Amino acid sequence: MDAERQAGRRAWVPLTVGACVLLALCLTYVLGFGEGAKTLADRVALVMMVLAVLTLVVSLRRGTGAAAVEDGAALAGRLGQTVASVELLSRRVIGGDRVPVRVTFAFRRSAHARSATRPLVPNGTLDGLVVDYRAVRPRRLVITGEPGAGKSVLARAFVAEFNRSRAEAEPVPVLLPLGDWGRQELFHDWVVRHLVRDYGCTRAHAAQVMDLGLVLPVLDGLDELDEPGVPLPESRAQQVLDALTGHRSGFEPAPVVLTCRTGLYDVLEASGRPMLDSARVEIDPVEAHEAGRFLAMRRGAVHREGDWRPVLDELRARPQGVLAQSLSTPWRLVAMATAYEQIEDPGGLLGAASEQEVTDRMFVRFIPASVRAADEEARYSPERVHVWLHQLARQLDTGGGAGNTLVLPELARSSGALWARVLYAATVGLLTLVTLRAFLLDDVLGGTGWGFSLLVVGIAVLALLHLRPKGYRLILRSAMWLPPWRSPLWAVAAKATLTGRNRWGFVVSSALPALIMWRTLAPEQLGGMGDWTMVLATLPMLALCVGLLAGQVLDAAVVGPSGWPRGGALLALALLCPTAVLMSLSLRAGLGLDAYTFPLALFGVLYCALSGDTVMYLCWLLVHFRRVPFRLSRFLDWCHAAGLIRVTGGVYQFRHREFQEWLARHPVPLTCPTAPARNPATARTP
């Protein structure tokens, strides 16, 4: 608990400093360098500014984990519910069509003395993995296999099944991609960061469940951390294993599950520095007879038996042939079934001379087949989908993601996004100059002008802090993820906002919109404008603020990775409402062009300070507008529905690393080899 209190204090320091600075600026306004706030309207404006500061601080305090003393079991239960809602094993990943691929595994003896005890009679199947894991002491497991063998599938299935049968005292399994673990970051801090980013936890609550040993990290992708040729002692993979060996819960090794390719882990184990106190399982290759069974039960083979019979006969006749070896992993087997199930003739694979040729022929047809399966009338053409996914694959290869993890808010901070950051800095600078122009051109700056100018400069500095490698957030990103506009999650969010302990935060956070309404509606004798027509302009802002507050009670992982741009868009609309009010007042007063540009620039700077990640993301899209769709999150959600992209927590990943690397090597779709002639009666028009 001491660590939680210290984390809470560290999070509270910048908020306290910011509140003191803003209150000092308010005091500058009051004093006015001798002028003071003389009128009632000025005093009402002052009260609104002070309450705005307090509302902002209280809202941010809610996001930094003020309730860190909450019961750990309750926190783990909520985390488990979130994981259960987003990490259910997608049957499409292991085959779909009611016929999954049978994944089996076997325990392997460790080459060192400090290994975990194994179950006496292991199940060795996908359904029995959790039972086997509970028999391991200590509960540390390494899942190894060849590329595409189903390590990620097995890990995802483990998370779903373990969470379904989890006892209250057991930790919550959380699937975490290892790609973005930095060399200088502690394992504890890295897991906490992912719980905040991917699962909507506050930082204090995430630290609490970690300190209590209520998180079971399921780490995917140890083999994807290093480039070829990196010396083993200097590799990130070796650093991860050293950190996991020292990861403890009390005096015992803490539970953990790790996936890695067989070849790399054999080398790490032979080096004498593997993950100690762990058991190891090896995923078996898919046998030719199992591949034939799976393909024969697919609806494509049932409906087009004549087309599929040569392929099935080849698998039975040559269980060690090129085709059987190419389909010896669940990933390739599912990709092949998807690519040829609808209209393509699978007989075209029989003439392949190597596994690479089989893979190329499958992947050429994989995207068009996935597009046809996703839409009756395709929203995107297969050619455009291929080109856009190629650009994203290249972005990940150059450091735009975490190796195989695509995090939308981090795209503008990647090594290849310099122009996006330059555009963002130029935007903030231009908006700041336009905002200050009304005061900089005056001959004499009064107290109000000086105070306002300092306030604008302070906001601009906060906006530029978003350029830091780790960013800077006045509003936690986990509080900005909103579901689709017609999603039933809105009803859940509204109920949670208006009931229980959340209602007090709702009341406090609604103070500023209510005061703006009062300022608009109240008669002039009470410091208001007494303008009923302006009420209609401010009502939308109140509704948008209520939507933002309701969205805060939803977990980021429940909403999905596309919820973050929606949160940024709703915040922009909430700021545009008072902007429209000020512009309409200027229009009624007959003021010049400066009166119109001033409120737009002011709220633009404020939006950059509150949601700089969103503005930087928009700058990245503008720089890459010819390479990727502008509505990138919508496109990625469509790709997820089509089976080309998978979602882990609050991030996107390609369906498989092999598919990502193939796309990175092929900027344009390859021409499909001519397939043998087929009976037109059995063909289906795409």
Task: Looking at this protein, list some descriptive labels.
686 residues, alpha/beta, Rossmann fold, six-stranded mixed β-sheet, three-stranded antiparallel β-sheet, 28 helices, disordered C terminus
Structure characterization notes:
Among the domains are: 1-69; 74-283, Rossmann fold; 288-375, no CATH class; 483-553, no CATH class. The chain has helices spanning 2-31, 40-63, 72-86, 129-134, 151-164, 187-199, 203-211, 236-245, 262-270, 288-297, 299-303, 305-317, 322-326, 330-340, 355-374, 382-397, 418-440, 447-464, 489-498, 502-509, 511-521, 532-551, 556-559, 563-589, 593-610, 612-623, 632-642, 657-665; strands at residues 105-108, 140-145, 172-177, 215-220, 248-249, 252-253, 256-261, 279-283, 405-406, 645-648, 651-654. The protein has 686 residues and is an alpha/beta fold.
Brief description of this entry?
By secondary structure, the protein is an alpha/beta fold. The protein is 56% helix and 7% strand. It is built from 28 helices and 11 strands.
